Amino acid sequence: MFDNILLYPVIIPFLVGLFNLIVPRLKKLKQLIGVAVTAYLLVFSYRLFNLTGVVEKVFSFNFLNYNADLIVGVNQISSFMLLFTYLFGFLISIYIFSSRSEVESGDNQFMAYFFWTLAGASGVFLSSNLLSLLIFWEMVTAVFFLYINLGKSKATSEAARKTYVILGFADAFFLFGIGYLWVTSGTLNIDLINISTAEGVLPRIVFFSFVVAALAKAGAIPFHTWIPAISEEAPVSVMAFIPGSLDKLLGIYLLSITMLKLFDVEPILSFVVMLVGALTIIVGVLMALIQHNLKKLLSYHAVSQVGYMVLGIATGNPIGILGGLFHMLNNAIYKGGLFLCAGAIEKETGTTELEKLGGLYRKMPFLMVSNLILALAISGVPPLNGFASKWMVYQGVLIAGQPVFLVLAIFGSALTLASFLKVIYSVYFGGASNIYDRVRKPSLFMTTPIAVLAILCLFFGILAAFIVNLYFVPMEFKVFAGLTSSGAYSELSFASTLWDPSLATLAMIFGLIIGVIFYFIGKVFNYREQPVFTGGEKFELEERRFPGTGLYTTILELPFIGTYLKDSDKGSYDLYNIIKITGWKTIVEKLKRLHDGILSTYLSWCIVGLMIIMFVLMMNR
Which DSSP helix (H) or strand (E) runs through 264? Predict the structure, then answer.
């Protein structure tokens, strides 16, 4: 039965997006339809997730004796990705219902692109072969560009162009890799391809072609700069959905099937990928520390968290890989929630500049509690979900024999906590700012999705081993072949690790109780206040604001790191800017000469390109 309706998660959101595009008004009705459709597809995805076995629908064709199967199918991996894609889609559609005033124009396009992004992502996860995966992958890249380009400012257009160039550049490598695998393997079925990178230089190049595509979509270094570029101008619902949730699911999904299915990876190549992960953690969090805009700060944390996923998957051992995959899910939960918190703050205050915020805990107590839980989760504080997945990554890195990467990963978590101490203090404490009086409490529709995501952080942290065994151990990766549901539960319950997190959690709770006791003891004592005398004049005590933006500014004064961070914030080391400057005259100007507007010129190049492709295919028959 299900083989005939596997494309529902693709077809339905595509048609709903088309409806939103062509119907000019009925804004609230379209948003209600959006909530209803995402709710239905969430239930449908849950039914797919509960299926046993693999269900596929095959569309085959032949070209020069090369078989190409457009296969859509559902298995444990794809159904998991689909389930949580529509969970985030459903929560964000509820948020959009209340917050769409943040985009004053382009409402039809906004909702259309939202659903087309869901359709493209669903197609990626349901694709059982590389050709259909590539088609939907490119659909998502194109819609990303349209989505981000909804803003009317010059900065928005440049950010959208930058996003498309970086992702398009990476996708060109992806296309090359798929072409090589088709020629050498004679098939594009993901389950039938397995190439060893030890076979020569070309397989290694192809392997890194896939890795580049995955890292660019996920937002890892050095392909990460499109995420901070879109952060300040793009609507928060876009940030929560794309760099907060969806691009991580897409990028890490591709990295997983690349390293765990398509290729047998040599240790040296795994080490290189681990190095990229570790550098992504440190550089991302250091850049976040110096940001004074909340959305841009969160965007750099979105980059930093990718490093843990990449690091875990590249370890090559079950505990590290499970930790990386689990962190992919956890990051989507708390990072999406953090961006939605920023959206609620921006909607009610009109700004996300930390300097202008303060004292909001009185106006937004429930939002503050949710925001605090999400901040502690991303910082890896037990017993929240971020701690569980990070701890598994740490364990995997130790098993892989890379203690240096372990130190960098733990250091990154400490800096993440320091960064969010600045955020919580600046937004909710630090004294009321001059915009405090006009601030209102966020609506229920805005705070409910945030509260749900915060509760999931706690739930997935407490039941981490159960969640891992339920969702991740059954995934069809050969590295998990020796794990069983019952055996994995005890192995992943953290009982065999060097530090018992349950005991650590109790110690933290005990310390918190002691701190609260001392706080109330201090409140018992009355302090005497004296006026200030200056030159014989008496001045009354005045209340002063101390915003948290001054925290950690000394890092910019460090000899090497400070200079690097300042230059990076200006874009000096941005790969996009470097290529744009150096490659403009050498490549772009020459290519522009080919665009002479004459149809015969374009037709000639198309014929030449087709002849080259046919020649390569016939030589390898």
Answer: strand 263-264
Alpha-carbon distance of 149 to 585, in angstroms, equals 26
Phi, psi of 165 (to 5 degrees): -65, -50
Phi, psi values for residue 333, rounded to 5°: -70, -60
Q: Are 77 and 476 in contact (CB under 8 A)?
A: yes
Ranges assigned E (strand) in 156-259: 195-196
- The model's pTM is 0.83
Q: Which residue has the tokens 């109780």?
A: 513
Supply the DSSP symbol for 293.
Answer: B
pLDDT for the residue numbered 273: 92
Q: Beta-strand (E) ranges in 276-418?
A: none
Amino acid occupying residue 538: K
Q: Which of helix, strand or coil describes residue 110?
A: helix
Contact of 426 with 360, CB cutoff 8 Å? no
Give the C-alpha separation, 111 to 100, whole Å.
10
pLDDT exceeds cutoff 80 at 579: no
- Relative orientation angle of helices 130-148 and 154-185, to the nearest 10 degrees: 180
Nearest partner of 458 among 534, 376, 349, 571, judged by Cα: 376
pLDDT tens readout for residues 15-47: 888 888 887 677 677 778 888 888 888 888 888
Output DSSP code: residue 190. Answer: G
Count of C-beta atoms within a 10 Å radius of residue 212: 20
Higher-pLDDT residue of 567, 527: 567
299-308, 435-444, 448-457: the lowest-pLDDT one? 435-444
339 Cβ neighbours under 8 A, 6+ residues apart = 236, 239, 240, 244, 295, 298
Please tell me what DSSP assigns to residue 128.
S
Per-residue tokens: 99: 């917050």
